[in-house]
Fold these 2 entries.
Entry 1:
Amino acid sequence: FELIGNFTFSEFLFSLGSTCFLNIFYSVTYGVFEKLRVRGPKPLMYWGTVGRHNQVYYLDDYECAKKYGRVWGLYELRRPMLAVMDPEMLKIILVKECFTHFTNRRNFRLNGDLYDAVNIAEDDQWRRIRNQVTPSFTSGRIKEMFNIMQHHSYKMVVGLQSKVDNSEVITMKDIFGPYSMDVMASCVFSVDLDSINEPSNPFITHASKLFRFPVPLFLFQGFFPFFLPLLKFLGVSLFPKSSTSFFRTVVEKIRAERNESSKTNVADILQYFINYQTKTLTKVMENQGLNDHEILSQVTMLIFAGYETSATTLTFLAYTLARNPEVMKHLQQEIDSTFPEKGPIRYESLIQMGYLSSVVDECLRLYPPAARLERMAKETVKIKGITIPKNMIVMVPVYALHRDPELWPNPEEFKPERFSKKNKQSINPYTYLPFGIGPRNCLGMRFALVMIKLALVKVLQNYSFLVCDETEIPLRMHPEGLMGPLQPIKLKLQKRSLNSADLDN
Ligand code: HEM
C-alpha cells in the first residue's frame, strides 16, 4: 500500500471510518434534545452529561437550573432524560396525566424478588397493589400505631441519657436510624428489634444496602443496554440478593408462625394484608387482594422505604436546629406549652402543632431525601410546546426546585415562617415536593410525619442539640443514592434545665 504521511492506506481508511462512525454515533445518541430544541449541558462521548457541573447529582441539577431555566435535557450515559421544574408542566405530568401517560417510574427490570413491590410495579398491577396498601396508612390506622411509636421514642430518649451525661459526641444517625427501624419493624410485622440497644442489627445493615445502587452494575447496564435481557435472565438485581433474601426469610418465618398459631388478631400491616388476601390468581385479578409473593414484596419494601428516609430527615432536623438555636428555642417553647411539665405526647395535639410542622416542612425543603422524582412517558406527548417522546424519562429535580430563588427568597436560609399557616396558602403545591405529588406520591407521608414529629418532640422535651468541633459545617453531600451527608452528622446534646419530672411516658 502507498504511504499517506506516516500512515498506510488501510490505517488511513480505518481511522477515517472510525471517526465517521463515532461522529454518527455521537449525533444519533446525543442529538435528541437538539432536535427537540431543549437546551442542556454538552454531553461527553459515552459518559453523557453525568456530573458535568458537580459530582453530586442534585447539586449538578441546581447548577443546570441556574444556567438553563426550568426545563433542560440531560444524558445519563447514553440515555436522554428531560428535567422539568416548571410548576404548570409538573401539574400535568404528575397529576393530570398520571394515569394516562406518566403512570410509571423508570424500570431497569433488574429488580430481583422485588419486581412486584408497589414502588416498582407498573400500570394496572401498580394500581391494584396501591389500592391494597393505601388503607394501611389511613389516619385511623396511624393513630392505632402511635402507641408503638411512643414506646420506641421513649426507649430512644432513655438510650441518650448516658451519652449526654458523659458529654459524648453523638452520631445522629446512630440514634435516629435504630428508632426508625424499630418503628417500621414493629408497625409492619410486630417484631420488637430493640435496635437502639443493638445498633449492628442485620435489619439496619440490610435495609441500608437496599438504597445504594451498585455503581458498576448501573454503569454496565448504561453502557451496554442490549445486555439487560441477559442480566435479567441471569437473575442479576440492583437490590443486593443477600438483603432481599434476608427480609424474605424473616417475613416467611413470621407468616408461618402466624399460620400455625392462627394468630389473626395482630394489628400490624402484614396481618392486614393477610386478612385481605385471596388465594387464587383469578381472584387477585379481580382486585380482591395481594398474593403471597406480593405481600412479601410490599412488607420488605415498606421497611426500607420508611427506614432510611425518616432517619435521614431526623438527622437533618437535628443538624439544622443545632445551627439555628433561636428556631430550636421557639420550637421548645411550643412543645412545653403543648405538653406542660414534659407531659405525655398526645396524637391529636402533636399533629396540630403549627411551628413544629413549619420546622419539619422547611427542613424537608432544604434537604428532601428524594432529591429527584421520575416518571416515564408511555406515549409521545406535547406539554406546553415541548414534545416528550415515548419512553423518555422525565426527571423532577426536587432539590433544585426547592432552592429556586424566584420561588423561595434567600433559598439557602432556614426559615420555618415560610410554612406558617398564613404563608403556606401562597405556596404553589407544585413547587414543594418532598413527598412527590399526585396518585403516585409517597404512600407513607402521613405516617412518616407523625413518626418524625414524635421523635423530635420527645428529644427536644429533654435535650437541646448543639454543634461541636466534630460537626461538619458546611456539609459535604454524598454523591449517590438518597440525599445524605458524605460524613455522618455529629452533634452534642445538652440536658434541658426544666425543673419538671423525669422522662416519663
Ligand atoms: C421523610 C420520610 C419520607 C420521604 C421524604 C418520602 C419521600 C417519597 C417520595 C419523594 C416518593 C416518590 C413520590 C413520587 O414519585 O411522586 C415516595 C414514594 C413512596 N414512599 Fe415515601 N417517603 C418517606 C417515608 C415513607 C414511609 C415511612 C413509607 C412507608 C411506611 C413510605 C412509602 C413509600 C412508598 C410505598 C412509595 C411508592 C409509592 C408508589 O409508587 O405508588 N415512604 N416517598
Entry 2:
Amino acid sequence: MNDLKNEECSACSNKNVYFSTEILSIDEKNGAIKKIYLFRCKEHLDTDLDEMLTLRRKKLANSYDTSPQKPDSHKIDNA
Ligand SMILES: [Zn+2]
C-alpha cells in the first residue's frame, strides 16, 4: 500500500492533509458500490464532494488522456 500521507490532493498538486473514502456511485442493478479515495489539502479541506470530484476529473484529464469512464482506482504515477 502506498503511503497515503505522500499523496497529492485530488484537486490540486498540494500535499494532502486529509483523506477519506467516498462513494462515487451505486449500481442500480447489482448494487455494486464504486468507491474512490479522496485527498484534500488545506486549501480544499472545506470543498464539498461534488466540487472535489469535478476538480479531480480536471486534474486527471490534465495528467492523462482520459476517456470519460476509466476505472477509478486512484493510482498515482509519480513521474
Ligand atoms: Zn488541493
